[in-house]
Design brief:
2 domains; single chain; binds 4'-deoxy-4'-aminopyridoxal-5'-phosphate; 3-stranded antiparallel beta sheet; 366 residues; alpha/beta; 14 strands; 7-stranded mixed beta sheet; Aspartate Aminotransferase, domain 2
Length: 366
């Protein structure tokens, strides 16, 4: 499509063009039913068909065990991590958090409103550039759950394995690497993800939840009805009006994912793209630098600085990048520098334009 740029935003982010075009084709008259998905009742047969297919595709694509519930909820990943303690603390009253970035830190803070959030590890002293070794964790076997953020979007830190927390129910925030590689769902009690990075527009979260956390047994008395996983799951994710259009766009993204080879395809693409960009950074002799430890680097979000964090040169970089159609490369406002997000919607070609530009910018400015 004419005039589109390479959008490296951390989310909402670039979507596969094929998905956008299909949505465009179906926009004003969905499959001949005479109305747009935006306009239809969520209880009608067309929309129920979309929602049911979305759930089926999620189950197929991620190999969700059949006894796990698939929950689609509004409020994004933030409402999900806010509702974790309300649905999981039960009588235990405390939750462990493996904190490796800003999102894990926020999730922990929320737990302290209703119980005790404990940092089983916290890499803040390294400015969130590492994943502490298991021997350094202080896990509490009596914790109601152990939470980790599989990919820290702001800091560019990603887990390369599923943490082993023994018998404590494991909870994962997979917002920013969801649908970018296979997930071992059965090792988790809860996997949740806002979908606006790798699976659609903003407006909702997808969760896979083990049955013993949707039976209401561990639900706090003060839990708002809207945050109750039991209520939401019992109502098949339609306790109230869902984010219908967002769910539909996700359904199209899932359909496309199945067509091109499932999550294995996205994993292969992600490895390639991340390899190209880290290669360009490593090959720059220090002109570009990624602060994250090599074994903790994210395939999705790549933070980097230029000439040791020279703000003037970084500004110039961002301005010149735009002339090559390379957009949204500024780092998160809390860390500065640059950041390129390489979600599913970013084609290899976009990363190739970026790395070519990085090379020529380096040659002109070093
Ligand atoms: N967790 C992670 C890892 C995220 O990247 C984000 C959003 N950037 C959130 C949680 C919060 O998601 P939302 O904005 O959907 O509430």
């Amino acid at each position: 499509a004419e005039g589109r740029v390479y959008n490296f935003s951390a989310g909402p982010s670039q979507m596969p063009l094929e998905v956008l075009e299909e949505i465009q084709r179906e926009m004003v008259n969905y499959k001949g039913c005479g109305m747009s998905v935006m306009e239809m009742s969520h209880r009608g047969k067309e929309f129920m068909g979309i929602a049911n297919q979305a759930e089926k595709d999620l189950r197929d694509i991620f190999g969700v065990p059949s006894d796990y519930k698939v929950m689609m909820s509004q409020g994004g990943a933030t409402l999900m991590f806010s509702s974790i303690p309300l649905n999981m603390l039960g009588t235990k009253g405390k939750g462990d958090y493996l904190v490796t970035g800003q999102w894990g830190e926020k999730a922990l803070k929320e737990c302290n409103k209703y119980g005790t959030g404990q940092a089983a590890c916290n890499s803040k002293s390294t400015k969130f550039t590492t994943i502490p070794k298991p021997s350094e964790w202080k896990l509490d076997p009596e914790a109601a759950f152990a939470h980790y953020c599989d990919n820290e979007t702001v800091n560019g830190v990603e887990w390369g394995y599923t943490p082993d927390v023994g018998n404590v129910p494991l909870v994962a925030d997979m917002s920013s690497n969801f649908c970018s590689r296979p997930i071992d769902v059965s090792k988790h009690a809860v996997v949740y993800a806002g979908i606006q990075k790798n699976l659609g527009p903003s407006g909702m979260a997808v969760s896979f939840i083990r049955p013993d956390f949707v039976d209401g047994k561990n639900e706090a008395k003060i839990c708002p009805t809207y945050c109750s996983w039991k209520t939401t799951v019992d109502a098949e994710s339609m306790y109230n009006t869902p984010a219908c259009f967002t769910m539909y766009a996700m359904a199209e993204y899932l359909k496309y994912t199945k067509k091109i080879g499932g999550v294995a395809y996205w994993a292969e693409q992600s490895d390639k793209k991340a390899g190209m960009l880290y290669g360009a950074i490593e090959g720059s002799d220090g002109f570009y630098q990624c602060p994250v430890a090599k074994d903790a680097r994210s395939r999705m979000n790549v933070p980097f600085t230029i000439m040791g964090g020279d703000e003037v040169i970084e500004k110039k970089f961002l301005a010149e990048a735009q002339k090559q159609k390379l957009f949204q490369l500024a780092g998160h406002r809390s860390v500065g520098g640059c950041r390129a997000s390489l979600y599913n919607g970013m084609p290899i070609e976009g990363v190739s334009v970026l790395t070519d530009f990085m090379k020529s910018f380096m040659d002109e400015n070093r």
